[in-house]
Amino acid sequence: WQTLSERVNRVAPSATLAVDSKAKAMKAAGVDVIGFGAGEPNFPTPDYIVEAAVKACRDPKNHRYTPTPGLPALRQAIADKTLRDSGYAVTPDRVVVTNGGKQAVYEALQTLIDPGDEVIIPAPYWTTYPEAVRLAGGKPVFVFAGSEQGFEPTVEAIEAVRTPRTKAIVVNSPSNPTGAVWSRETIRAIGRWAVEHHVWVLSDEIYEHLSYDGMRTVYIGAEVPEVRDQLIVLNGVAKTYAMTGWRVGWIVAPTPVAEAVTKLQGHLSSNVADVSQQAALAAVEGSLDAVDMMRAAFDGRRRAIVAALNEVTGVTCSAPHGAFYAFPEVTALLGRPLGPDGSVVRTSSELASLLLDQAHVAAVPGEAFGAPGYLRFSYALADDDLAEGVRRFKQWVG
Ligand code: PLP
């Protein structure tokens, strides 16, 4: 609409949220939809975390504004957790608590990017990165690595798109949407390349605790210590502790960046809800036992969904080693008759739409992640739903 700003008109809506809300609306209308759309663990938030929030709610001192960058105890706990998990020490003044990992991404880009600056985004990518770059006036530059490369880019491909305007690169391993866990060699090479060329690294580590088959998340700040002065780690409690709706994320960055992010946040949203911060404190300070339990459940579902998807004619799914997404290739389904009425689709986007309408199965098309020809299935849903959803997909393909 012409009176809206150019800035907002340029932004594409979140495709993942769109699929999820269409699926939820169909469910509300009484349709039995199986939703593989949302990246949302189906577990309840662990009890001790909920109890910490209940206790915090009852204490009126927690009904006020907290410092903008977060409760001092939570910033300290995030610094301690960084040492525990990533293996290097940071001071709490480098930490800013944000309204979810999504706000951390947005604020980091608003803080670093000037109009015309380029940000290298390995594709397939999480759908928010390019839009957040555009909202900052920057230009996303994509480097694609498909399933044949294990969805892992080479530093040579990254170097090939570097220009004098390259300001930052996004690293997201384990990855949404592919579930790829990048190798030590790749992470190390990207870290060294960034140091050599003075490029900021935005390392989104939100799936750090969800990896399988003995694969471990490799932390770029640990692998390449010299990168820490140009590293912004983005993280949050959503995926690790089944806390998507609590909206707590954070940034760990060099102190001047953390201060600039705090200044921005002071005009954007102030502090994160105190009660949510107290819950996050219990989560981050606590053990990883609940996470181990959830990871074991995700691992079982991962094996089940990969096996089941590979039995669907025209679908090829490599085993992801992290996060909770399967990202099968579906190009063999394009251009051939599908479903009870033999409909023909040309794109994975049309395929996802038809699958939802006819088989009542919600998956997100690869187009949302810069990867046409793929579909993303989140397997963070109940075992029975998972089996039933893929059974419907298989039957629908015929
Ligand atoms: N980063 C990645 C790669 C994600 O997949 C998500 C959520 O889907 C987020 C960040 C943001 O998480 P939240 O804003 O819920 O903390």
UniProtKB/TrEMBL annotation:
Q: Please provide, alphabetically and separated by semicolons, the GO molecular function terms listed in this UniProt record.
A: pyridoxal phosphate binding; transaminase activity
Keyword presence, Ion transport: no
Top class in the EC scheme: transferase
The segment(s) forming the Aminotransferase class I/classII large domain are 32-392
- Coiled-coil positions are none
Its transmembrane ranges are none
GO terms in the biological process aspect are:
amino acid metabolic process
Q: Which family does it belong to?
A: Belongs to the class-I pyridoxal-phosphate-dependent aminotransferase family.
PANTHER family, sorted: ASPARTATE AMINOTRANSFERASE
What protein name is recorded for this chain? Aminotransferase
